[in-house]
UniProtKB/TrEMBL annotation:
Domain OmpR/PhoB-type, residue spans: 676-748
PANTHER family attached to this UniProt entry: TRANSCRIPTIONAL ACTIVATOR DOMAIN, TRANSCRIPTIONAL REGULATOR REDD-RELATED
Keywords: DNA-binding, TPR repeat, Transcription, Transcription regulation
Protein name: Bacterial transcriptional activator domain-containing protein
Superkingdom of the source species: Bacteria
Domain Bacterial transcriptional activator: residue ranges: 763-893
Family: Belongs to the AfsR/DnrI/RedD regulatory family.
TPR repeat residues: 480-513, 820-853
PROSITE patterns, A to Z: TPR
InterPro entries xrefs: AfsR-DnrI-RedD_regulator (IPR051677), BTAD (IPR005158), OmpR/PhoB-type_DNA-bd (IPR001867), P-loop_NTPase (IPR027417), Sig_transdc_resp-reg_C-effctor (IPR016032), TPR-like_helical_dom_sf (IPR011990), TPR_rpt (IPR019734), WH-like_DNA-bd_sf (IPR036388)
Length: 897
């Protein structure tokens, strides 16, 4: 056997970084039998020990272990050769024959047990020997029988399978783990600025430490990348940092390639989680072995660690690498589905901040808005600082300030923004030494907060500062959004020339770099400016472009181009179409319940009613807008009203003399409203008559038919008299000030025939039916919007307060079936689109409305099983059995779960 001398040579990694902190730890523990350094590859274990023994000039036997050294005779041969070299012994025959292992070991123990001077024996890369029980026995004997002057130092990727507990109890063990070995801020500064003379600034050092978590291999690779860069080149490098190519090559070829497929799949999918809680991961993967997998990763030092709270986390760079791999091997729909599944799990666990982050990552903005409402009901406003402080982006790798700010800051009410503005301003003041891009992010957040609080002056200030800070970084998304929002601020300040200047700059960045969020926002703002200038030909194509691009942004953002379309149609005098667009927009905005969005639509509808001469409706809608739009935005609203009044005063005065409108709410609680005031029918026969007319609206009804249905008891003279009295009372109630029944707009009479006309009535039941009416060739997106509008209109069954009135039953059942079918259509639409959260929600709504629909149970359960949502399928199956068998007595087939 030939001894390879390089295995017994202390490595030379000069120039060394003298790590005083760790040198001191090693020196203090030289009286112990064993010092263990354990951690993933690249934590500088070998470099630390080699530099320590060289600088301290301590006699050292260095043994670089390899996989061929796991045989006892090979191990002892190298150890004997190393000892002979350091101790000055005869080196002619250091080979140990396999049959003489025990004899040679005893000779070495005899020598080591009496050695008088300080000696270190380093076993580097010990993980290659850890599975050999024979080697374990040899080393155990060496540890316990060597003299006190001898210290063994083991470097390993795994904690050695040696009697460490016994050594610790005897105070003969010292351990340095990855957290000890990681570079501190001070050591990182020394590495770059003293050892390599790169003169990095404090914020650059902090950025490196935060991203690498002190992992030395990655710090060395970053040095290789930036060592030839100028200051401005480094500036942009940090702004667009997405990982380290050489490191990713190493992780792919050296780390992942050696792992079984099961481990690889687990690593990829769990990279979506910032924190690895066993119960959450089990539900996400539909498995029950998460704890075993995580412990395996921890034991094998696969860039995972456990926090003091017991939570598992991947190292940041490793998680970034895993997520990049997941993106490459999955399509966008799969990634979105993973996020939505996680969001649903977190929501069920009442971890709403995590749920919100994953709903937004999965592009389910409706569920995100719903979760936000729950958070607002539960938490104190200052707790929302976590969403503004960069935490959101660490939870879900897909999220960035560029694609979340437009949605996030609209979701948060002014009361929350008031609470977080002061601590955020303090944060900006305190972080002047960090990377300018980080400051730019915080300034951008502050600018948005001040905008939605209504402080346009402060908003402009922070948007300008954020823009100045991020321009040198080439962070195009943030640049484009700052420019677009500056355009909107200047538009609200009525400085249209500056507004156009910034908006066109934003469009240039957005279209060149395909940033859909800022592109849509800029197009909308530009269209609003042209509408203000009454240049409708320039505005219209911009509105249509904004509407098209909004389909790629957060779903709620459609309200922006919707509102501009209402304004365009209003300025053209096409009020009927404007009202239709406005109502669609209001229905869409109401689903998300985002106050500024709803307020904006109310404003445009109110201005349209004002322009059309419907003064009372205008007053109602503008009042609603004033409730929803906050502070300085109210000034903008009032300015718009004044402009319209000054332009259109004569028509407003004329229209105010026109009749007021009748509103009837029949789906759910029955309500009558005339000109914004509630009406109560004191005469019961008048109420019954109105119910009959509404159920048979727009039909010519013979008086005898009415008498037979509404007044079934009594003589003809009696019921005939009741009819006329009830009809007169009803007319007066619905149309106060009506001079003659023949002049009624609603209750028309022609001889013995009566018709209740709904054309001039705001009747929710009729709107519901029209919304669901089939229109050949309608695009699916329009169909879905109509289904959602119908859902909003259906606040309960048709005249649900009068369940035993016979002539209402047919209409009630017709609308109920339409409602159930529309919910089922929505459930299938969302499920087929892999939006399982909304799919489940609408299946549940169907069964909540009618828990005896067996075919819906079967369909729902089958879809849950196909998607591997087994526990949910079990719950639905149990509910089906309860309703169908226990309550109806109908036997159902149990599905195999």
């Amino acid at each position: 056997m030939n001894i390879i001398e390089s295995k017994l040579t202390i490595p030379d990694f000069s120039p060394y970084l003298v790590r005083d902190r760790l040198f001191s730890l090693l020196e203090k523990n030289l009286e112990r039998s064993l010092i263990c350094l354990t951690g993933d590859g690249g934590y500088g274990k070998t470099t630390l020990v080699s530099s320590f023994v060289k600088i301290k000039d301590i006699p050292t036997v260095w043994y670089q272990v390899g996989h061929t050294d796991r045989y006892p005779h090979v191990f002892l041969s190298y150890l004997k050769a190393g000892l002979s070299k350091v101790m000055g012994l005869e080196q002619k025959d250091t080979y140990v024959h396999p049959e003489l292992v025990e004899e040679e070991l005893q000779q070495l123990l005899s020598l080591l047990s009496t050695w008088p001077t300080r000696l270190l024996i380093v076993l580097d890369d010990y993980q290659w020997l850890d599975q050999s029980e024979e080697i374990q026995e040899i080393i155990t004997k060496l540890l316990f029988q060597s003299a006190r002057t001898i210290t063994y130092i083991i470097t390993s990727r795994v904690r050695p399978a040696l009697p460490l507990v016994k050594l610790k109890l005897q105070q003969n063990l010292a351990e340095l783990k990855a957290s000890d070995l990681a570079f501190s801020n001070e050591e990182t500064t020394l590495f770059f600025n003293s050892l390599h003379q790169l003169h990095l600034q404090e914020h650059e050092i902090q950025f490196i430490v935060n991203r690498t978590e002190g992992w030395i291999a990655s710090i060395q690779l970053i040095h290789d990348l930036i060592k030839e860069m100028t200051h401005s080149e480094r500036y942009r490098f940090w702004a667009h940092f997405k990982g380290i190519p050489d490191l990713y090559d190493y992780l792919g070829s050296e780390v992942l390639a050696s792992q079984p497929k099961e481990i690889q799949s687990f690593l990829y999918k769990t990279s979506l989680l910032a924190e690895l809680h066993v119960d959450i991961v089990n539900l996400f993967l539909d498995e029950d072995h998460t704890k075993r997998m995580l412990d395996h990763l921890l034991d094998h030092h696969l860039f995972i660690y456990r926090t003091e709270e017991g939570t598992y986390k991947y190292h940041q760079l490793f998680r970034m690498f895993l997520y990049e791999k997941l993106i490459k091997q999955s399509d966008r729909q799969e990634i979105d589905a993973y996020h939505l599944k996680l969001a649903h799990i977190y929501e069920e666990k009442y971890q709403f901040f995590h749920a919100f982050a994953h709903y937004i990552s999965g592009k389910d903005y409706l569920r995100g808005a719903n979760v936000m409402r729950q958070m607002l009901d539960r938490y104190h406003p200052d707790q929302f600082m976590v969403l503004i402080d960069g935490w959101l982006e660490t939870i879900a790798p897909d999220l960035s300030l560029d694609n979340t700010s437009l949605f996030l800051f609209r979701c948060l009410p002014a009361t929350v923004l008031d609470e977080i503005v002061e601590p955020l301003e303090a944060r900006v003041t305190a972080i002047k030494q960090v990377h300018p891009l980080t400051i730019a992010h915080f300034q951008h957040r502050l600018a948005n907060i001040q905008f939605y609080r209504g402080d346009l002056v402060q908003s402009k200030k922070y948007f300008l500062e954020s823009l100045d800070a991020c321009l040198p970084t080439n962070n195009y998304g943030l640049i484009a959004f700052n420019l677009s929002m500056l355009g909107q601020v200047y538009r609200f300040m009525n400085d249209l020339d500056k507004a156009i200047h910034y908006i066109k700059q934003s469009l240039s960045y957005s279209e060149q770099h395909r940033i859909s969020y800022s592109q849509m926002h800029s197009l909308w703002n530009l269209s609003e400016i042209y509408l203000t200038k009454n240049d409708l030909n320039m505005a219209e194509p911009l509105i249509h472009q904004a509407l098209e691009i909004s389909r790629h942004c957060d779903e709620a953002s459609k309200v922006f181009p919707y509102s501009s379309m209402v304004k365009l149609l209003r300025l053209r005098g096409e009020y009927a179409q404007a009202f239709e667009w406005g109502k669609d927009a209001l229905s869409h905005a109401s689903r998300f319940d985002i106050e500024p969005d709803i307020g904006w639509i109310y404003m445009e509808l109110g201005l349209t009613y004002l322009a059309a001469g419907h003064a009372e409706e205008a007053q109602f809608h503008l009042g609603k807008a004033e409730e929803k739009l906050t502070r300085q935005l109210n000034l903008y609203l009032k300015s718009e009203v004044e402009k319209l009044r000054s332009r259109n005063q004569p028509s407003v005065e004329v229209v105010e003399k026109q009749p007021r409108k009748l509103k009837l709410r029949t789906l759910g609680t029955f309500e009558i409203e005339y000109g914004g005031e509630a009406i109560k029918l004191l005469r019961k026969t008048s109420l019954r008559l109105l119910l009959f007319f509404i159920a048979h609206r727009d039909r010519k009804l013979v008086k005898d038919q009415i008498l037979d249905q509404v007044f079934p008891d009594g003589s003809f003279q009696s019921i005939n008299s009741q009819f006329y009295v009830s009809l007169s009372s009803l007319r007066k109630a619905l149309e106060p000030g009506l001079q003659s029944g023949r002049q009624s707009r609603y209750l028309m009479q022609s001889g013995e025939h009566y018709t209740f006309c709904s054309q001039e009535i705001d009747l929710d039941a009729e709107q519901f039916l029209q919304t669901l009416s089939d229109q050949p060739g309608m695009p699916q997106s329009n169909r879905i919007e109509r289904l959602l509008m119908a859902e909003q209109l259906y606040q309960g069954d048709f005249f649900e307060e009068y369940p035993y009135v016979d002539y209402l039953e047919a209409e009630r059942e017709k609308m109920r079936l339409l409602y159930l079918n529309s919910l089922l259509e929505l459930a299938r639409y969302y499920w087929d689109g892999k939006d399982y959260t909304n799919g489940m929600k609408y299946y549940e709504k169907v069964l909540e409305k009618d828990p005896y629909l067996d075919h819906v149970y079967e369909e729902f359960i089958e879809r849950l099983l196909q998607t591997q949502l087994v526990s949910s399928a079990r719950k639905v199956s149990e509910r089906r059995q309860r309703y169908m068998e226990q309550e109806l007595g109908v036997s159902v087939r149990k599905l195999s779960l």
